[in-house]
Amino acid sequence: MLDTPFITRTDPVRAAVIRFDIPRAEIVHVMGPGMADVLATVAAQGIGPAGRVYAHHFRMQPERFDVEIGVPVSAPIPPPGARNLTKL
To answer: What is the pLDDT of residue 17?
Structure first.
């Protein structure tokens, strides 16, 4: 038996993410390295993860996955190539 649906309100959570739109067959080759990349990026910024790694599937079509791999963080992460002025 299904439970009665309900709405839960939560506070926004900042996250570092990598988004992929890939052929379905490649998902097995992308998830592990993608998780490692997002964790390495937050570690390199010195802010570490503030929660568990997650995957958010935007679309799962028969031939493609549109998926985001992310991890909650406690501070903003500058885009690749940007200088982190807070550490100067």
So the answer is: 92
DSSP state of 40: H
Q: Choose between 44 and 81: higher pLDDT.
A: 44
The answer to whether the beta carbons of residues 38 and 17 sit under 8 Å apart is: yes
Largest CA distance in the chain: 57
- The mean per-residue pLDDT over the stretch 55-73 comes to 91
DSSP 8-state class, residue 54: E
15-76: which CATH topology? Multidrug-efflux Transporter 1 Regulator Bmrr; Chain A (3.20.80)
Q: Name the residue ranges covered by the structural domains of the chain.
A: 15-76
Per DSSP bridges, beta strands 54-60 and 64-72 are: antiparallel
First-to-last CA distance in the chain? 57
Q: Look at the pTM and tell me if it is higher than 0.90.
A: no
Which residue's structure tokens are 């406690």? 74
Question: Parallel, antiparallel, or unpaired for β 54-60 and 15-23?
Answer: unpaired
Supply the pLDDT for residue 67. Answer: 93
